[in-house]
Specification:
Number of helices: 11
Oligomer: single chain
CATH topology of the largest domain: FAD/NAD(P)-binding domain
Number of domains: 2
Cofactor: FAD
Structural class: alpha/beta
Organism: Craspedostauros australis
GO molecular function, one term: NAD(P)H dehydrogenase (quinone) activity
Strand order of the largest sheet: 5-2-1-11-23
Low-confidence stretches: 93-109, 379-404, 407-411
Pfam families: Pyr_redox_2
CATH class of the largest domain: Alpha Beta
Keywords: FAD, Flavoprotein, Membrane, Oxidoreductase, Transmembrane, Transmembrane helix
């Protein structure tokens, strides 16, 4: 009987695994193993390149991976859908029940470990499963998520669409500023909620790109001798903490505090955003928990969320797998989901029980371990993977490259 190795999600960890499986098609065929990828997006973004895309260093195509091309090359079945539920059987030889209520062990699903149910109605039976669906923004107030004008950096695909629209909107505002009667600059205020590396990367990259866009548009107007009122871009960072970059050392924090000050970016500390209201003029009024800031300081034209992450809600609500307090799948050091043989997870959707690690950081040894664990379970002998893993140091080196627009900082 054909065994099915299913991948849910097209994140970077899975792309790495699929590329390795592409070189092992002969072994997969001999073992009668079918590989299936379930992905809601065919063009999947790589989050590590997002700040560079925002800053204008990369194009949209540069930061996206074409899953269809990879699957076609690797002879992998691609299902363009979102997985919404997973049924899992701890005993692969479980019994199933017919419509008449009688047990039946000869049912098609009786020898399978589980089933993925997709939003398009497809049901994919699997013998081995790997999950890599990323994370979701963690926000204390549900009203933030429900306000359509509050944009979260993740999912990245939705943010990219917003950012393209924002640049077009600002360019039109600059071009139409010549008809304005006011002699003072037109202010456009962008608020970013968050105090980690991601929030700082986003706000610095965005300021660099948008200011350059406005300057270029203004120069074009000057060349055509068009009167204008310049657009004044204001960037504001709201963090509930008393400092930024808590997971980094003192020198890194000092470095970015200096950069933010040099770039005239306002930072409000102890500013936990709990609500956002849309004003009659379509601007946004931020509501903070116990703040001394004036209401005028809390009005923005755009509000972006770049906060800490939670696990995707469906993982804890529509699967039988164990999740931690933040909704992340609990995995062992082999990336096998705890108490779920044959099920693995990688990337930001999981948390390692014995060795907790920050989200959003790429570690080659971790990817290699996921490759090795999945392949061993389906009995595919990948000597190259084992050899590479043996050469990798047991501890993890993390190099975080931070593209912030006008320069790159490596720490």
């Amino acid at each position: 009987m054909t065994r099915t190795l299913a991948f849910v999600g097209g994140g970077h960890a899975h792309v790495y695994v699929l590329k390795h499986l592409a070189s092992k098609q002969k072994q997969l065929k001999e073992l009668d193993v079918e590989v299936v990828l379930i992905a809601k997006d065919i063009m999947t973004p790589y989050s590590g390149m997002l700040p560079g895309y925002i800053a204008g260093h990369y194009t949209y195509e540069d930061i996206h991976i074409d899953l269809a091309k990879i699957c076609n090359y690797a002879n992998i079945r691609l299902i363009h859908a979102a997985c919404m539920q997973i049924i899992y059987h701890s005993d692969a030889s479980h019994t199933t029940e017919n419509d008449d209520g009688n047990d039946n062990q000869s049912n098609n699903h009786s020898n399978r470990r589980g089933t993925c149910i997709c939003d398009n109605g497809e049901r994919i039976d699997f013998d081995c499963l790997s999950i890599n669906v990323g994370s979701a923004p963690s926000v204390a107030s549900q009203s933030l998520r429900n306000n359509p004008k509050v944009i979260s950096v993740k999912p990245i695909s939705e943010f990219c669409n917003f950012y393209i629209e924002l640049k077009e909107r600002l360019q039109r505002l600059q071009q139409n500023s010549s008809s304005a009667s006011a002699s003072t600059p037109i202010k456009h205020r962008i608020g970013v909620v968050g105090g980690g590396a991601g929030a700082i990367e986003v706000i610095l990259s965005m300021q660099h790109s948008l200011q350059r866009l406005l300057d270029d548009t203004a120069k074009q107007q000057q060349q055509h001798q068009q009167p204008q009122n310049p657009i004044e871009l204001e960037m504001v960072l709201f963090t509930r903490g008393t400092s930024l970059l808590k997971q980094h050392n003192h020198s890194v924090r000092q470095c970015f505090q200096r950069v933010l000050k040099e770039r005239n970016i306002q930072v409000h500390y102890s500013a936990e955003v709990i609500n956002v209201e849309t004003l009659p003029d379509d601007r946004l009024q931020l509501k903070l928990r116990g703040t001394a800031l004036q209401p005028s300081d809390l009005i923005v034209d755009e509000c972006l969320l770049c906060t800490t992450a939670d696990g995707a809600s469906w993982l804890s609500q529509s699967t039988p797998f164990r999740t931690d307090a933040n909704g992340f799948l609990m995995v062992e050091s082999t990336y096998q989901v705890v108490d779920a043989p044959g099920v693995f997870a990688g990337g930001d959707c999981c948390g390692m029980v014995d060795h907790p690690r920050p989200k959003g950081e790429l570690r080659v040894p971790c990817l290699m371990r996921l490759v090795h664990s999945v392949c061993l379970f389906v009995a595919v002998a990948i000597v190259a993977v084992v050899a590479v893993q043996a050469r990798v140091c047991s501890h993890v080196f993390s190099v975080h490259r931070c593209p912030i627009g006008s320069c790159n900082i490596v720490f």
